[in-house]
Amino acid sequence: MHDATAMILAAGLSRRMGERNKLLLPINGVPMIRHMVDVYSAVTQTPVLVVTGHQADAVKACLEGCDVQIVYNPEFETGQQTSVVCGLRAAEGSAPMLIGLGDQPSLTADDLEALLGAHNATDPARISIPVREGRRGNPIVVPAALRNRLLEDPRSPGCKTFTRAHPEHVQFHPLQSPGYYADVDTPEAYNALAAHQLKEVT
Question: Which structural domain range is residue 78 located in?
């Protein structure tokens, strides 16, 4: 277990999935968002901060009994960066923060261990980002001392703009696990994942 706080973004409209909210679809017998909370809870010592928005009541119901802190983003329809801001403002303590997505069910606790291990073994004062073949992945690790820096630009707050504008505060870790780079946005992606899980069971 690491001295880290996890924040999972779970507010999106899930438009590309059609009528279904992808975070409510089953993964290994539980809703996707609950599966993700279980993964992050396996490596962190504090309640997982979950930022909700779209179908917030349904997402909250899926997490009943989990060790979570739920924060509602009233501006969720305007984009993911507002959810990042909402979560950062709610965060407390001096531990580094894992900022992740609610739709990466291929991500494992071992993946999170590897990222946190790489972060702590290099420069813990920098933001850590997994990378493979030039592609950035998720989650990222944000030191507590930099949380407020991500809120400085009122026109474009959050991680994306800051990490590109301030490379001196960023370090990249070559991590190969596909879990960092795969999310489930479409019915096709979900069906492929479900079929893969079925093959593993049979």
Answer: 5-201
